[in-house]
């Protein structure tokens, strides 16, 4: 751990929700959302302790060994008192564990003036993800740290300028990331691989060209989406309703159960209503909120 005169005693950050996969980019694509967000506050301490409150806090272990943020503090050799105010509900498919892990990574970097690069922060935060899902996937922590739309690969993260609008629907269904991953097949055919590459290319081109229809056409994955859809009661109804209401693309957000619908700004109220009614037609309660592509972790205060 490197300490300098500029080091802080306390740092508070805002770490946004994210939507991973965006259909065809399983474990690769992710997008930062403008809301909701976790607020993470860190203070210097001799050993790490964690307090969690806010949305779904009762489901999150405060033992640093079992907590995503505790793992990040250990990785960075940066002990701290960590307070997390959850705005992103756990097991929602909106990058809840990633928001805490990424928020803590950035906050500890500031607190101890570690001078880490974005990619180093992404890698540390991804180790936090491993604690909850068994896999150090970077597709939530990367957009959470860097903002915008990200492409995570084995040689680092690409950040693409992105500006699009969306609706997120959160049904009253629980799907943990590990259950969502266990549902996936271990092998894919060459035909499926080719289709996924074509669809993922449409997503990237759609983002870069600001072509929402092209982006929406690529937002599907017959392997991952088909395997997970049965875990989310009402998903097919909600998807169909949102597409009928004008959404350019609809898919499962991360490992679910949230649903991501990309659409034009003015269509968001109709798409939000359609998603809720679609779930309702399958006897599932859901809440929807309107969002857009957002920034990465922001430092709110330091002293
Ligand atoms: N890419 C991950 C998955 C995101 O789909 O399992 C979940 O956090």
Describe the structure.
The chain is α+β, with helices and mostly antiparallel strands. It folds into 2 domains: 5-161 and 293-302, Ribosomal Protein S5, domain 2; 165-291, Alpha-Beta Plaits, CATH 3.30.70.890. Helices cover 35% and strands 26% of the residues. It contains 10 helices and 11 strands. It has helices at 68-75, 96-111, 118-133, 141-146, 177-182, 190-208, 212-217, 224-228, 235-244, 268-281, and strands spanning 10-20, 29-44, 49-54, 80-86, 149-153, 156-160, 165-171, 249-252, 259-263, 286-292, 298-302. The strands form 2 sheets. Strands 1, 2, 3, 4, 5, 6 and 11 form a 7-stranded mixed beta sheet that branches. It has a 4-stranded antiparallel beta sheet with strand order 8-9-7-10. α1 runs parallel beside α2 (96-111), α1 (68-75) crosses α3 (118-133) and α9 (235-244) packs antiparallel against α10 (268-281). It is globular, with a radius of gyration of 19 Å. The structure holds L-homoserine. The site of L-homoserine (HSE) has 12 residues, from α5.
Give the topology, please.
Blueprint: E1 10-20, E2 29-44, E3 49-54, H1 68-75, E4 80-86, H2 96-111, H3 118-133, H4 141-146, E5 149-153, E6 156-160, E7 165-171, H5 177-182, H6 190-208, H7 212-217, H8 224-228, H9 235-244, E8 249-252, E9 259-263, H10 268-281, E10 286-292, E11 298-302
Parallel strand pairs: 3-4
Antiparallel strand pairs: 1-2, 1-11, 2-4, 2-5, 5-6, 7-9, 7-10, 8-9
Helix pairs in contact: 1-2, 1-3, 2-3, 9-10
This protein binds L-homoserine.
L-homoserine (HSE) is lined by residues 20-21, 26-27, 137, 139-140, 177, 180-181, 254-255.
């Amino acid at each position: 751990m490197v300490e300098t005169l500029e080091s802080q005693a306390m740092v508070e950050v805002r770490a946004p929700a994210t939507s991973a996969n965006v259909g065809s980019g399983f474990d690769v694509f992710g997008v930062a959302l403008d809301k909701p967000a976790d607020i993470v506050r860190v203070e210097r301490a001799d050993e790490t302790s964690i307090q969690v409150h806010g949305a779904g806090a009762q489901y999150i272990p405060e033992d640093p060994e079992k907590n995503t943020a505790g793992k990040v503090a250990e990785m960075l050799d940066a002990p701290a008192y960590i307070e997390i105010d959850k705005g992103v509900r756990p097991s929602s498919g909106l990058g809840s564990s990633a928001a805490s892990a990424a928020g803590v990574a950035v906050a500890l970097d500031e607190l101890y003036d570690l001078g880490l690069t974005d990619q180093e922060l992404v890698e540390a935060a991804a180790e936090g993800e491993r604690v909850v899902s068994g896999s150090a996937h970077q597709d939530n922590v990367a957009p959470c740290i860097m903002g915008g739309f990200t492409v995570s690969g084995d040689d680092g993260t690409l950040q693409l300028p992105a500006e699009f609008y969306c609706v997120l629907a959160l049904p009253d269904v629980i799907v943990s990331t590990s259950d969502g991953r266990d549902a996936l097949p271990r092998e894919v055919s060459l035909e499926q691989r080719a289709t996924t590459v074509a669809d993922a290319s449409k997503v990237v081109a759609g983002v870069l060209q600001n072509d929402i229809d092209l982006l929406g056409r690529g937002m599907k994955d017959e392997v991952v989406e088909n395997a997970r859809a049965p875990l989310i009661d009402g998903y097919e109804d909600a998807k169909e309703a949102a597409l009928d209401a004008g959404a350019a693309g609809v898919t499962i957000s991360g490992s679910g159960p949230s649903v991501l619908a990309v659409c034009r700004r003015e269509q968001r109220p109709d798409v939000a209503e359609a998603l809720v009614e679609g779930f309702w037609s399958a006897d599932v309660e859901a809440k929807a909120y309107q969002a857009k592509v957002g920034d990465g972790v922001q430092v709110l205060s330091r002293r």
